Amino acid sequence: MDKYYILIIPGLIMGTFARVHMIKSDYRQYPTYPRGYLSHFTLGFIAAGLGSVALPALIEEEFAAITFLALAAQQFREVRNMEREGLDNIEITEMVPRGTAYIEDIAKTFEARNYMAIIISLVTSTAIYICIIFKINRYMSIFSGMVVGLIVYIFIKRMIRGEEIADIADVREAKISFDGPVLKINGVIIINVGLQKTRDVFLSRGLAVEIIPKDENAVTYLSNIGQRQAVQHNAANQLGIRKDADEPEFTPIAKRNPENGNIIMSIVVMRPDVDIDALIEAVRRTPLLETSKRKPSDSVVGQKLRKNRKKV
Q1: Residue ranges of the domains in the chain?
Q2: How far apart are the C-alpha atoms of 215 and 177, rounded to whole Å?
């Protein structure tokens, strides 16, 4: 296998690069650093190694080696389960929980990124091998293969890029008001707030938005409780909230208007300099979870309903 190092090493480098480039710790603080970085880097390196040796194994008719790819797929599924369990275990420590739907989405993402490392390394080594078959210079073959690997990486990354709330809905400022002890946002009843002191806090530091779906499918997306929980979590993480563990009334609330499907959300921020534009941007940038995606308007029933509305 010594003669195949020209295929294995560039593939290993490109696959590892693809995984490392996607390791990012942002406001979600996951993966944590440095332990999280180390574990994800190690898994990415292993995945890249499996992808880079797959082609040489096929060339040498070492078909038993290919079974390691099936074994790797099983192990990466276990990684997904481990990520899910880890996030579930720390969920009770979150001031505003992510929700099970958000956790599942994160776990799927990390599993898919390991598969991407395998694909990039395999594509790189395959491109180099094809160049060698056409008797292209060795160094030019390596360069061409790495360029192809980079192009495929950019393509896949764009292809699997998730949508955000901004893609399916408009987000606008909403008005907080009280009808006695009842908190209302744009006239929609949200919660009963008994203490006058708490009501004063809502009026002085509370911010609210209305999320308006762009179409019928978006109405279904936003009706998902897990999606709304993700919006609440992201807003609280980025803006900060005036809440402690024993103050449930200050938990961000995202409630559905049953009349039109719009989502009304309120949050009481800690810092007085946080304005409504910051909340709108935080909501707009919330990822659209895969578990909330549905297209009822594309179904047979949905198409009939659309035709009936047009007739009316």
Answers
A1: 2-161, 166-295
A2: 28
Q: Tell me the C-alpha distance between 55 and 234, whole Å.
A: 43
Q: What is the DSSP string of 276-308?
A: HHHHHHHHHTSBPPGGG---GGGSHHHHHHHHH
- DSSP track, 235-263: HHHHH--S--TT-GGGS-EEEE-TTT--E
The pLDDT tens digits for 219-267 are 988 999 999 999 999 999 889 888 887 778 888 988 999 888 899 999 9
Nearest of 225, 235, 228 to residue 277 by alpha carbon: 235
Q: What is the pTM of this model?
A: 0.83
Three-state DSSP at 161 gives coil
> How many angstroms separate the Cα of 310 from the Cα of each of 209, 217, 275?
31, 17, 41
Contact in structure between 198 and 242 (CB atoms under 8 Å): no
